[in-house]
């Protein structure tokens, strides 16, 4: 069992163990030697050994277990075995690439050297008996991506038979925003698109049509305010303008399908100085090939839409940020009933900038990023920006989301959920601590009963958005900076 010990001198980052010896313990007796099972000895400076620690209080965990599939193997006969085949004569182990598994190979074993896994043929498929699972060890900087200007949002997407792309929502109008393509293990510039203080992109498909919608925050040179939907041209191999929609300081797009119909929802942040305006849900009209207004929903300085489904039900959560006087306001969750979204639940938030829904097993969670606490009618807190962001869990019995955990964040603007092997993680975009934009963003690991626990601290500058993505080369995190024209790709190193 792990025994916590606090030392005055921190463990050195570099330690020579040449000719070193380790004293592990004794039986406190004059005779006899120390006996027992050494469960753990991990010396791994600079890496994360936490998931390798044994947290159980049951000593039986230390015993080596026999895989269930082997427990019904017949025992050795008790009669004279001198003239009989040795035990295991009919067992055959194959090493190498995946062999055939048919009735003839039933009960044979295959050891996959590359994955360090042992598999058993059941007559048709290979069943995993022992398999190494990837674990997140540490995070390293992989690519510094110089952008057109500060980046407010990232959208990573894959176009079938074309490749992996990243659309960057850049703040400064000329030259606008940029799309990058993943080539030879790096993002390289692919296409510029004129935007007006772009806040975010949303990639979606309708049938074989591929779209990319941008949320523009500012008016264009003619004083017109609109956001644009772009369509992928297979002939030109780039995105071209498809439909313009009137928006008001748009922050975010969300695309979703309900009962076979496609929808697109925009977050309108404010109109002039009025933050209490409608955000709009558009429905795709297959006859005209255009999005048409389907429903308007009152919002307050909203930042984000998040769509999710639970069983047969569809939900849409809005992050309300500011009502003109206070950031301490309710954000709302809507449910789709009888052809429209209706209020399902209201949750008190503090300058909410993002909702992130995720599943762990059969549990459903909803995390909110609270950016700051401000109320014109209340005394100012010591720090507007050091504030809890909260994780809520769906309670099936109560038919509502209930608070599961609070995590201290610093002007949090985004949550991103991702998995590595059997482990689940949340990374937060901490953007400002009240003094500097150089603030650590944090990866939290899911640890069951303990909830999410901080596992990695990542230096970021004005962090605005996180995206997790995977390629054949591995798993990555991508973050955008709203304070400098530099975004970074981080690679997740696994063991």
UniProtKB/TrEMBL annotation:
Keywords attached to this Swiss-Prot or TrEMBL record, sorted alphabetically, are: Repeat, Signal
Q: Which GO terms describe its biological process?
A: signal transduction
Q: Which InterPro entries match?
A: EAR (IPR009039), EPTP (IPR005492)
Q: Which Pfam families match?
A: EPTP
UniProt KW Signal keyword: yes
Identify the PANTHER family for this entry.
THROMBOSPONDIN-TYPE LAMININ G DOMAIN AND EAR REPEAT-CONTAINING, THROMBOSPONDIN-TYPE LAMININ G DOMAIN AND EAR REPEAT-CONTAINING PROTEIN
> Would you tell me the protein name for this molecule?
TSEAR protein
Name the species this protein comes from. Answer: Tychaedon coryphoeus
What's the gene?
Tspear
């Amino acid at each position: 069992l792990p025994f916590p010990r606090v030392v005055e001198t921190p463990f050195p980052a570099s330690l020579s163990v040449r000719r070193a010896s380790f004293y592990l313990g004794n039986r406190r007796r004059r005779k006899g030697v120390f006996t027992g099972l050494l469960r753990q000895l991990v010396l791994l400076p600079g890496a994360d050994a936490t998931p390798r620690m044994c947290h159980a209080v049951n000593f039986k965990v230390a015993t080596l277990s026999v895989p269930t599939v082997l427990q019904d193997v017949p025992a050795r006969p008790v009669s004279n075995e001198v003239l009989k085949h040795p035990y295991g004569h009919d067992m055959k182990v194959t090493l190498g690439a995946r062999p055939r598994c048919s009735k003839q190979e039933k009960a044979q074993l295959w050891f996959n050297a590359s994955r360090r896994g042992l598999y058993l043929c059941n007559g048709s498929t290979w069943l995993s008996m022992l398999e190494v699972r990837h674990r997140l060890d540490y995070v390293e900087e992989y690519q510094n991506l110089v952008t057109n200007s500060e980046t407010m949002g990232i959208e990573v997407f894959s176009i079938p038979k074309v490749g992996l792309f990243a659309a960057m929502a850049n703040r400064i109008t000329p030259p606008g925003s940029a799309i990058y393509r993943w080539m030879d293990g790096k993002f390289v510039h692919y296409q510029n698109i004129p935007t007006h203080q772009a806040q975010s992109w949303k990639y979606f498909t309708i049938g074989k049509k591929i779209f990319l919608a941008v949320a523009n925050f500012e008016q264009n040179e003619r004083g017109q305010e609109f956001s644009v939907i772009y369509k992928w041209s297979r002939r030109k191999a780039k995105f071209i303008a498809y439909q313009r929609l009137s928006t008001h300081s748009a922050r975010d797009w969300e695309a979703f399908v309900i009962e076979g119909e496609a929808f697109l929802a925009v977050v309108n942040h404010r109109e002039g100085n009025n933050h209490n305006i409608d955000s709009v849900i558009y429905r795709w009209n297959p006859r005209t090939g255009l999005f048409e207004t389907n429903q308007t929903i009152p919002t307050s300085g909203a930042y984000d839409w998040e769509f999710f489904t639970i069983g047969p039900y569809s939900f849409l959560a809005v992050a309300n940020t500011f009502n003109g006087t206070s950031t301490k306001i309710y954000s709302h969750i809507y449910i789709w009933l009888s052809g429209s979204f209706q209020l399902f639940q209201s949750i008190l938030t503090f300058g909410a900038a993002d909702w992130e829904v995720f599943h762990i097993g059969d549990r459903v969670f909803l995390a909110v990023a609270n950016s700051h606490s401000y109320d014109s009618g209340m005394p100012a807190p010591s720090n507007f920006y050091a504030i809890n962001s909260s994780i809520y869990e769906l309670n099936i019995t109560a038919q509502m989301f209930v608070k599961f955990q609070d995590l201290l964040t610093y002007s949090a603007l985004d949550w991103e959920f991702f998995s590595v092997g059997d482990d689940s993680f949340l990374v937060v975009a901490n953007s400002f601590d009240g003094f500097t934009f150089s603030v650590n963003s944090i990866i939290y690991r899911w640890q069951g009963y303990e909830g999410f626990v901080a596992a990695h601290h990542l230096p970021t500058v004005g962090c605005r958005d996180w995206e997790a993505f995977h390629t054949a080369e591995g798993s990555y995190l991508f973050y955008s900076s709203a304070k400098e024209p530099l975004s970074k790709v981080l690679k997740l190193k696994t063991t």
